[in-house]
Amino acid sequence: MDGRWSLMPFPDSILDQTLLTSGSALLLALVGALFIGMAKAGLAGCGLVSVVLFAETLGAKASTGVVLPLLIAADLMGFWLLRRGGSWKQVWPLAPPAILGVVIGWWLLDKLDNLLARQAIGWVILALLALKLLLDWKRDQLAHLHRHAIFTWGIGVAAGVTTMLANAAGPVMAVYLLAHRHGKADYLGVFTRFFLFINLVKVPFSAQIGLINGPSLWTNALLLPAVVGGIFLGWRVVKVMSQKVFEWAMFVFALLAAIRLVA
User: N or C: which end of the chain has fewer CB within 10 A?
Assistant: First the structure.
């Protein structure tokens, strides 16, 4: 055991099979995985924070391939829990533009080096944080947008590009669902179905450019329990803490971290 395990002792034989290079990296990745689960439990702000933590820990491009299977695992759990809300027919209008967006994002991600990918993820997060502010300010004005086909296609393409580049299209999808004024159960059901669908679509694209591979999958196996723990922790936090206060704390954290990515 050498000095690189000072923060979290862990067997070299296991960690060497993964993309994690130190005990510190493992610790940050576990926190990121925990935040993925918390985001799926309803604390949406955790999702952007997890993107930043993984980009810092693994590098921007490699992190997208590691995060994707973790998201799919969380989506499967979420779909099972929320299967009575919404329906697949509410997802299909978004499918063609979202797939187009994934193709565009796949092409961009393949062309970017790690530095540019890091900056792109940072700018995507800053744009999504600005979108959150717009949603909070103009929520009622979204009611009529869903009547226009160009709105559906614009949201679908934007969601596809954003999720392929940064696994962080939640705020984009929120615009679409708020415009349709779904009830809470349908909102969560459609949200979960869409991301389960689009994340599965992304798998062959991520594998083709080498972002999903043997070491990334071993990394997933190591981090998956933290995702499950995050789901249960998220449910507890929602019950005992004001979600608004928590979300704004995550907003500030994500803002500072995104600025660090683009600097």
Answer: C
